[in-house]
Specification:
2 copies of one chain form a homodimer.
Chain A: H1 10-22, E1 29-32, E2 38-41, E3 44-45, H2 52-58, E4 66-70, E5 73-77, H3 85-89, H4 95-102, E6 106-108, H5 128-138, H6 150-163, H7 168-191, H8 198-211, E7 215-216, E8 221-223, E9 243-248, E10 250-251, E11 260-265, H9 272-291, H10 298-315, H11 323-328, E12 386-389, E13 392-394, H12 397-400, H13 403-408, H14 415-418, E14 426-428, E15 431-436, E16 439-442, H15 451-458
Parallel strand pairs in A: 5-6
Antiparallel strand pairs in A: 1-4, 2-3, 4-5, 7-10, 8-9, 9-11, 12-15, 13-14, 15-16
Helix pairs in contact in A: 7-8, 9-10
The structure holds manganese (II) ion (2 copies).
The site of one manganese (II) ion has 5 residues of chain B, from loops.
GO molecular function (chains A, B): manganese ion binding; metalloaminopeptidase activity
Cofactor (chains A, B): Mn(2+)
Protein name (chains A, B): Xaa-Pro aminopeptidase
């Protein structure tokens, strides 16, 4: 781990976050960073990713560390590197140097943490080694999948209220992640004409991210089978009539994420049917972004996307009826079965480790409606929130061949007409949109999304 | 997961391995594949890597599966994909299809495994979720770090005796990994002149691996600070007088690894001092490979490398005395502090999850000598073994500035002369060498390692 002074005042940013937390809660907090997990043997480790809650208040991707927050004070707990580790890992920054950089009020060895646990709240990290330690030290079960209770729940709610809107320190990082992700997508488009496999396009995209000394914020989707929504296979050949759907995002060294999807034609030219559907999805995307401003309900943005897609599919003769009525019966979800987007921040689905506590306004719950159940965010928007807008159109066999759905929607789908769009398996267009006081700013706007410009970037 | 028929007779290879196992043990065996670990929230997973022991007998990178081996029979235990998963993950191969491809004699749901546990031996996987499950089902602690006992120890010894030498199915995969790794290193050399950061060279190398739909078999080392032996930082700028040390290896989809190190000059031209040391390391590398054949002790190969390096450093005026005497007192380890290499197979340090059980012949233990303690392999070579040969020269501050070592070796190091080699921080040359009946075959020979050709590949 090397200390990068990515913004001049990391310590100031962290101090500001602690003060805001202290305004909300009056008990001490201990947050663990987590530790690496072994891949196939103990010395061969999977890439380390610290807990996002730790990163938010500690700033740096420290391993096997903890911080204690109380009344705006920050204490850092970690071991100094062993002298013998210098042989293998070189000179690493000492605890006191790190403490100074992050503006900690005190720095102590991890072994002393046990004396500072009283009445402290925490949030479970993801790796079993660390949540076992959390549980043992705090003498209660601290499990990632457990429902939060008591002061842990109060802490989670307080952190959510901070992390829901981004401060300047966060935005600097989020803009860096967005810029590298834009460059990655351009590289993917440019690499397509010479590529024969999905994997080669993925390599061009992730190469940009690696070259920027960043990581992917999630496992990339780079596929000609966009109809498989979470497709993590890259072995398919690229055929001239295929569309490449690429959902790839970078994450900065401090852990802040971007998340972009583009869909482009392998041959550099959309077929007429592909372009028709592409423009329906783009119309939904643009309409949603135009509507984003504080106080607007994100659930209404989702319904707007559904309505614009339904309208577009009516115009193309694929759906029949009135758009609002079709959305009412979830007919849009035959082709747009997921939500319009999600929170974005340190996590690509920000704070999803807390379940729907961050995504759903207090008192609201997931719908069990076919067209609403996958919505990850259901809150009024506020200035400083960062959300994705990612409408899509997919011909998912598991949906379109479902006997019950075919009966239910027999009168609203023109299957004959739909069969003419067989070369459109999946299209998604996703951008990262910051809610501002006056409306919105698209952090990923440097990446074109209109069909003509996308074609030009490919060929 | 998609089924690739990477070699025509996966089932035959697996059957052969089972028969060999059945010749060694007479109790049933259950091997678990393991499961993915979450990154920062449960739906965002770290890359999945199955247990190597499972891969050896099951062939395919299945998740949340187990196999039972008894008397040469193979039973597969896994759940069929849920119908609802087709929406997100597409149609996945069913248990019975997978069972057929791997030649299983039976296929059952995971939930039935509990009825087939009696008297079964196992080996712990690395992920906590799965070793907890192993422990619960077998009603004993099955922990990755526990010393093996009883039938588990017998099983480990039997598996080691199989995996120590590679069958044809394994060699096909190992050659593929080597070929892609060779291409990755060539790409790294070619990218250096336009690169400004280590990260950009790493991106060019890993890009080749990703484009081949493979993964890295370990976290890449791509650094101008080769003196930090396990350097996983990539942010340093490339200066014209720097050497890039790149230790990068690919792993096939079925889990078989390669492991190559090259060291090249950023400017495409070694300085005279860099070339002098480079040629010392290369001489050691070549001498070791020339000596490899069945029955030769790998420990003697290590001592040969130490001796050749000592001789070279004497010739350069850095060390003083007689090479054999210097090796006797571990003076070589001031500059070559690690072992000459290790086993290579499904793991980059093959079977290191079993500690030194695979690397060390029965009855042998690690030396505590400065110049021998890091040796990972200490056995007589046998035809079919794959080992790395990776001599190096490093100026590690933690060693060369160590007061005790400076006193101990005050009469054998010419510090004045050494100071003229300040532009050589670290050099390593590593190839993957298959022991054959008549000697050896370098699987990574397609990648040049002589100084002139390396210079040409860079510039
Ligand atoms: Mn997204
Ligand atoms: Mn090696």
């Amino acid at each position: 781990m090397v200390i990068h002074n990515t913004y001049s005042s990391l310590a100031d940013t962290l101090s500001y976050r602690r003060q805001r937390l202290a305004n909300l809660i009056d008990f001490p907090v201990i947050l663990w960073s987590g530790s690496s997990s072994p891949r196939n043997f103990p010395a061969n480790l999977l890439p380390f990713r610290p807990s996002s809650h730790f990163l938010y208040f500690a700033g740096l991707p420290l391993q096997n560390a903890a911080i204690r927050l109380e009344s705006g004070k920050l204490e850092l707990f970690m071991e100094d590197p062993k002298p013998s580790s210098a042989l293998w890992h070189g000179e690493m920054p000492k605890r006191d140097e790190i403490a100074q950089q992050i503006g900690a009020d005190a720095a102590k060895p991890m072994s002393e943490l046990e004396f500072f646990l009283e009445d402290a709240a925490t949030i479970a990290v993801q790796d079993a080694g660390t949540w076992t330690q959390q549980s043992q030290l705090l003498n209660r079960w601290v499990l990632p999948q457990n429902p939060l209770q008591g002061i842990d729940l109060e802490l989670a709610k307080a952190i959510i209220s901070l992390r829901l809107t981004h401060d300047e320190g966060a935005l600097i990082e989020l803009r860096k992640a967005a810029a590298v992700t834009v460059a990655a997508h351009k590289a993917g488009m440019a690499a397509t004409s010479k590529a024969t496999l999905e994997a080669e396009v993925r390599a061009a995209m992730e190469g940009v991210i690696i070259a920027s000394n960043m990581t992917t914020s999630y496992n990339s989707i780079v596929t000609v089978h966009g109809e498989v929504l979470h497709n993590e296979q890259y072995h398919h050949p690229l055929q001239p009539n295929d569309l490449v759907l690429a959902d790839v995002g970078a994450e900065t060294e401090m852990g802040w994420a971007a998340d972009i999807t583009r869909t482009w034609p392998v041959a550099g030219k959309f077929s007429p049917t592909q372009k028709d559907i592409y423009n329906v999805v783009l119309a939904a995307h643009d309409a949603c972004i135009a509507k984003i401003r504080p106080e607007v309900e994100y659930g209404d943005i989702h319904l707007l996307a559904a309505t614009v897609i339904a309208e577009g599919l009516i115009d193309l003769g694929i759906l029949q009826g009135n758009a609002e009525d079709l959305v009412e019966i979830d007919a849009h979800a035959l082709f747009f079965p997921h939500g319009i987007g999600h929170l974005l921040g340190l996590d690509v689905h920000d704070m999803e480790d807390l379940g729907d506590l961050a995504g759903y306004e207090a008192g609201r719950q997931r719908s069990d409606r076919f067209g609403l159940g996958y919505l990850r965010l259901n809150r009024p928007l506020r200035s400083g929130m960062l959300v994705t807008i990612e409408p899509g159109f997919y011909q998912v066999p598991a949906i379109l061949n479902d006997a019950n759905l075919r009966v239910k929607y027999q009168n609203v789908v023109n299957w004959q007409r739909l069969s003419q769009f067989a070369d459109v398996r999946g299209i998604r267009i996703e951008d990262d949109v910051l809610v501002t006081a006056s409306g919105s700013e698209v952090l990923t706007a440097a990446l074109p999304n209109d069909a003509d410009t996308v074609e030009n970037l490919v060929s």
